Amino acid sequence: MLPTLNFRFSVPILVLIAILAIAAVAIHTRANAVNRETINFAASLAGGMAAIYALLLSVQTSRSSAARKLIERWNNPSFAEYRLEAGEAVQAGSLDKRNLEKIRRVLNFFEELAISVHRREAEEAILQDFFQTTVDRFFRVTEAWIMDRRKTHNQPTGYIHPVREPLQALGTTLIGTSVRVSY
Fold first, then answer.
1. CA-to-CA distance for 178 and 165, rounded, in angstroms?
2. Distance between CA atoms of 73 and 8, rounded to whole angstroms?
3. pLDDT tens-digit profile of 27-70?
4. Chain mean position to CA 59
5. What is the pTM of this model?
6. Distance CA 130, CA 90 (A)
7. Rounded CA separation 173/150 (Å)
8. What three-state secondary structure class fits 93?
9. Integer distance in angstroms from the first to the last C-alpha of the chain?
10. What residue ranges do the domains of the chain occupy?
11. Half-sphere exposure of 61 toward its Cβ, with a 13 Å CA cutoff?
12. What number of CA atoms fall less than 13 Å from residue 69's CA on the CB side?
Protein backbone atom coordinates (compact mmCIF):
# COMPACT_ATOMS: atom_id res chain seq x y z
CA MET A 1 0.00 0.00 0.00
CA LEU A 2 1.34 3.38 -0.96
CA PRO A 3 1.55 6.03 1.73
CA THR A 4 -0.86 8.89 1.31
CA LEU A 5 0.17 12.47 1.43
CA ASN A 6 -2.38 14.80 2.99
CA PHE A 7 -2.12 18.52 2.51
CA ARG A 8 -4.44 21.48 2.60
CA PHE A 9 -4.23 24.90 1.13
CA SER A 10 -6.61 27.80 1.07
CA VAL A 11 -7.32 30.46 -1.49
CA PRO A 12 -8.58 33.81 -0.26
CA ILE A 13 -12.12 34.40 -1.51
CA LEU A 14 -11.13 37.67 -3.20
CA VAL A 15 -8.51 35.86 -5.30
CA LEU A 16 -11.10 33.30 -6.34
CA ILE A 17 -13.59 36.05 -7.25
CA ALA A 18 -10.93 37.92 -9.25
CA ILE A 19 -10.05 34.77 -11.21
CA LEU A 20 -13.73 34.10 -11.95
CA ALA A 21 -14.26 37.72 -13.01
CA ILE A 22 -11.29 37.64 -15.38
CA ALA A 23 -12.50 34.35 -16.86
CA ALA A 24 -16.05 35.74 -17.28
CA VAL A 25 -14.75 38.85 -19.07
CA ALA A 26 -12.56 36.75 -21.36
CA ILE A 27 -15.46 34.44 -22.24
CA HIS A 28 -17.82 37.39 -22.66
CA THR A 29 -15.55 39.17 -25.16
CA ARG A 30 -15.31 36.04 -27.34
CA ALA A 31 -18.99 35.06 -27.16
CA ASN A 32 -21.65 35.90 -29.73
CA ALA A 33 -24.68 38.08 -28.87
CA VAL A 34 -26.94 35.19 -27.79
CA ASN A 35 -24.31 33.68 -25.51
CA ARG A 36 -23.52 37.12 -24.03
CA GLU A 37 -27.07 37.35 -22.68
CA THR A 38 -26.65 34.00 -20.98
CA ILE A 39 -23.31 35.07 -19.57
CA ASN A 40 -24.86 38.35 -18.34
CA PHE A 41 -27.65 36.40 -16.63
CA ALA A 42 -25.17 34.01 -15.00
CA ALA A 43 -23.03 36.94 -13.81
CA SER A 44 -26.09 38.69 -12.39
CA LEU A 45 -27.13 35.52 -10.62
CA ALA A 46 -23.63 35.04 -9.22
CA GLY A 47 -23.58 38.66 -8.04
CA GLY A 48 -26.90 38.21 -6.27
CA MET A 49 -25.71 35.04 -4.61
CA ALA A 50 -22.52 36.78 -3.50
CA ALA A 51 -24.58 39.59 -1.96
CA ILE A 52 -26.75 37.12 -0.06
CA TYR A 53 -23.65 35.27 1.13
CA ALA A 54 -22.12 38.55 2.31
CA LEU A 55 -25.30 39.38 4.22
CA LEU A 56 -25.38 35.99 5.93
CA LEU A 57 -21.69 36.25 6.74
CA SER A 58 -22.21 39.66 8.35
CA VAL A 59 -25.06 38.25 10.48
CA GLN A 60 -22.82 35.39 11.61
CA THR A 61 -20.01 37.81 12.38
CA SER A 62 -22.40 39.98 14.37
CA ARG A 63 -23.58 36.99 16.42
CA SER A 64 -20.01 35.88 17.10
CA SER A 65 -19.12 39.41 18.15
CA ALA A 66 -22.10 39.56 20.52
CA ALA A 67 -21.04 36.25 22.08
CA ARG A 68 -17.48 37.51 22.54
CA LYS A 69 -18.80 40.68 24.22
CA LEU A 70 -20.82 38.59 26.69
CA ILE A 71 -17.71 36.54 27.48
CA GLU A 72 -15.70 39.76 27.91
CA ARG A 73 -18.32 41.12 30.30
CA TRP A 74 -18.19 37.90 32.32
CA ASN A 75 -14.39 38.05 32.48
CA ASN A 76 -14.24 41.78 33.21
CA PRO A 77 -12.55 42.51 36.55
CA SER A 78 -15.57 44.59 37.57
CA PHE A 79 -17.64 41.37 37.54
CA ALA A 80 -15.06 39.40 39.55
CA GLU A 81 -16.84 39.77 42.89
CA TYR A 82 -20.00 38.27 41.38
CA ARG A 83 -18.13 35.39 39.76
CA LEU A 84 -16.40 34.76 43.07
CA GLU A 85 -19.69 34.68 44.98
CA ALA A 86 -21.19 32.31 42.40
CA GLY A 87 -18.11 30.09 42.52
CA GLU A 88 -18.19 29.94 46.31
CA ALA A 89 -21.90 29.03 46.23
CA VAL A 90 -21.16 26.24 43.75
CA GLN A 91 -18.27 24.97 45.88
CA ALA A 92 -20.44 25.03 49.00
CA GLY A 93 -23.34 23.46 47.12
CA SER A 94 -25.74 25.90 48.73
CA LEU A 95 -26.81 29.54 48.94
CA ASP A 96 -26.60 29.58 52.74
CA LYS A 97 -24.71 32.64 54.00
CA ARG A 98 -24.34 33.94 50.44
CA ASN A 99 -24.84 37.50 49.25
CA LEU A 100 -28.11 37.06 47.37
CA GLU A 101 -27.75 40.39 45.61
CA LYS A 102 -24.58 39.10 43.94
CA ILE A 103 -26.28 35.79 43.18
CA ARG A 104 -29.15 37.69 41.51
CA ARG A 105 -26.64 39.66 39.42
CA VAL A 106 -25.16 36.41 38.12
CA LEU A 107 -28.62 34.99 37.43
CA ASN A 108 -29.57 38.19 35.61
CA PHE A 109 -26.42 37.90 33.52
CA PHE A 110 -27.28 34.30 32.58
CA GLU A 111 -30.84 35.36 31.78
CA GLU A 112 -29.49 38.06 29.46
CA LEU A 113 -27.17 35.51 27.88
CA ALA A 114 -30.02 33.05 27.29
CA ILE A 115 -32.29 35.74 25.85
CA SER A 116 -29.50 36.81 23.48
CA VAL A 117 -29.28 33.25 22.20
CA HIS A 118 -33.07 32.91 22.04
CA ARG A 119 -33.36 36.11 20.00
CA ARG A 120 -30.46 34.93 17.83
CA GLU A 121 -28.41 37.96 18.74
CA ALA A 122 -25.47 35.90 20.02
CA GLU A 123 -23.83 32.74 18.71
CA GLU A 124 -25.11 29.78 20.72
CA ALA A 125 -22.20 27.40 20.09
CA ILE A 126 -19.58 29.87 21.34
CA LEU A 127 -21.56 30.59 24.50
CA GLN A 128 -22.19 26.91 25.15
CA ASP A 129 -18.50 26.15 24.79
CA PHE A 130 -17.60 28.85 27.28
CA PHE A 131 -20.46 28.85 29.82
CA GLN A 132 -22.05 25.39 29.79
CA THR A 133 -20.36 23.91 32.86
CA THR A 134 -20.55 27.13 34.85
CA VAL A 135 -24.23 27.66 34.19
CA ASP A 136 -25.04 24.01 34.78
CA ARG A 137 -23.35 23.94 38.19
CA PHE A 138 -24.73 27.32 39.20
CA PHE A 139 -28.24 26.27 38.28
CA ARG A 140 -28.05 23.18 40.49
CA VAL A 141 -27.21 25.39 43.46
CA THR A 142 -29.81 28.10 42.71
CA GLU A 143 -32.70 25.95 41.48
CA ALA A 144 -34.50 25.72 44.85
CA TRP A 145 -34.04 29.45 45.48
CA ILE A 146 -35.42 30.28 42.00
CA MET A 147 -38.46 28.05 42.54
CA ASP A 148 -39.11 29.59 45.95
CA ARG A 149 -38.74 33.12 44.58
CA ARG A 150 -41.21 32.36 41.81
CA LYS A 151 -43.77 31.25 44.38
CA THR A 152 -43.23 33.90 47.05
CA HIS A 153 -43.03 36.81 44.59
CA ASN A 154 -45.71 35.45 42.27
CA GLN A 155 -43.28 35.49 39.34
CA PRO A 156 -43.87 32.18 37.55
CA THR A 157 -41.52 33.16 34.71
CA GLY A 158 -38.65 34.50 36.83
CA TYR A 159 -35.35 33.33 35.37
CA ILE A 160 -37.30 31.18 32.92
CA HIS A 161 -34.77 31.35 30.08
CA PRO A 162 -31.74 29.79 31.73
CA VAL A 163 -33.73 27.24 33.72
CA ARG A 164 -36.61 26.07 31.50
CA GLU A 165 -34.98 22.93 30.15
CA PRO A 166 -32.88 21.97 33.17
CA LEU A 167 -36.12 21.48 35.06
CA GLN A 168 -37.18 19.08 32.34
CA ALA A 169 -33.83 17.46 31.58
CA LEU A 170 -32.09 17.39 34.97
CA GLY A 171 -29.76 20.26 34.28
CA THR A 172 -27.97 18.79 31.30
CA THR A 173 -28.28 21.89 29.12
CA LEU A 174 -28.99 25.47 30.05
CA ILE A 175 -28.02 27.75 27.24
CA GLY A 176 -29.59 27.60 23.81
CA THR A 177 -31.77 24.52 23.87
CA SER A 178 -33.30 25.70 27.11
CA VAL A 179 -34.83 28.66 25.37
CA ARG A 180 -36.17 26.60 22.48
CA VAL A 181 -38.71 24.89 24.68
CA SER A 182 -42.14 26.36 23.95
CA TYR A 183 -43.75 28.35 26.74
1. 4
2. 37
3. 888 888 778 888 788 888 888 888 888 888 888 889 999 999 99
4. 11
5. 0.65
6. 17
7. 21
8. coil
9. 59
10. 14-57, 66-180
11. 6
12. 11
